[in-house]
Write a structure and sequence with these properties.
Length: 372
Amino acid sequence: MKVKFFILLFLATFFVQCRKDNTSLPVTVAVPFSATPYSINYPFFWSKVPILSPANNPLTVEGIALGRKLFYDPILSQNNTMSCATCHNINFSFTDSTKQFSSGLHGEVGKRNAPPIFNLGWFTNYGVLTHQFFWDGGASDLESQVFGPITNPIEMSETLPNVLTKLKLKSEYPTLFKKAFGTDSITSQLLAFAISQFERTIISGNTKFDQGRLINFSNFSPEEMNGFITFTSEKGDCWHCHTLAPPSSPLETDFGLDFSFHNNGLQKIFTDSGLARITKNNGDLGKLKTPSIRNLVFTAPYMHDGRFSTLEQVVDFYDAQAYQGSNVDGFITKNPHPTGLNLSSQEKRELILFLKTLTDSSLIVNTSYSKP
Ligand code: HEC
Ligand code: HEC
């Protein structure tokens, strides 16, 4: 009840602030605190695709600052040595260095490669699917995703009650929660709210490709242009899943259309059941979340299990190694072996040069996202 009451007051604050210059508005609500609304600075070409926060967790300057501090604070782990940033390292575009699998607190190794964290706010925008985060869609929104790594015994291995106790005892946190949410009571919900707010602000929109959108890609070399054409033509046919056109463009995945998880022919035997783990539908076996292909130069190794360490291996795979099983996506099986995509070595090289135009080096030096 308390939380609900507080949220109502919170929204009231917003309402009042949004209407600030309307002097005739009668302000009858006693506003308990005032957090500063935050507006996202969108890359100009995505301004028509707003990031929508859940109604009860709007972005505020104080909430984002708190989330950023928590993201980098090892206090969230059992022995206070591991933070979210341990595995989502800004220097590697928020992936876990060059590791195939991350090590948990006690040295155990997981089975999936840590994905990057950027442009995730758009995933809650479309509301088409409930499975949005993790390689198999195991979390439906950013807020609920947060609890996974904290409590996972092979990651941070902590309990939520312990985390909350530790936060309450650390001098600065009660004040910071109060500033962000207007309450002294630190709850797991508010912890998740703050971290999600920070994650929603991590935006990558400054690649050569992004810049090229303005000037008809006149900044591309002839090789990059050829690679772009291979990517978007029927020959390479990458774009059906790694979409570059609106509304999916911020993600470089096809999220927002009706099929964002695909079996791209990686697994002959299903060592990772993918989306089927969540949906219990055999037709979803081996379907994994289509990852962003932005910032690949920082995010190696590749695929859910980090099996490929180079882009050359990735392109060779799509060219002629993808399995052709019945559960594999039609965009993969339409180019049957032995020829496959039949790319020449020059076409492969150009395709990789194009993929590298999706590099946003400004993200990894952005001081709004680094350790506070
Ligand atoms: C021990 C390493 C590790 C730690 C610590 C960790 N993560 Fe992760 N994270 C991963 C791995 C591995 C995955 C992929 C798991 C999967 O898909 O099954 C992942 C997935 C995610 C995703 C999903 C991204 C997507 O595109 O679907 C988000 C968001 C995320 N982590 C945020 C966090 C936050 C926030 C924290 C801290 C509370 C955190 N992680 C702590 C390793 C880690
Ligand atoms: C049928 C849909 C589909 C098509 C077509 C497709 N991909 Fe993918 N791509 C995926 C999925 C799904 C994954 C993740 C699969 C996994 O990890 O099991 C992926 C993963 C990748 C990755 C790894 C990214 C990372 O961070 O791990 C790269 C790079 C990539 N694809 C590039 C390409 C290129 C280049 C093409 C065209 C030659 C292409 N893809 C065609 C669906 C597709």
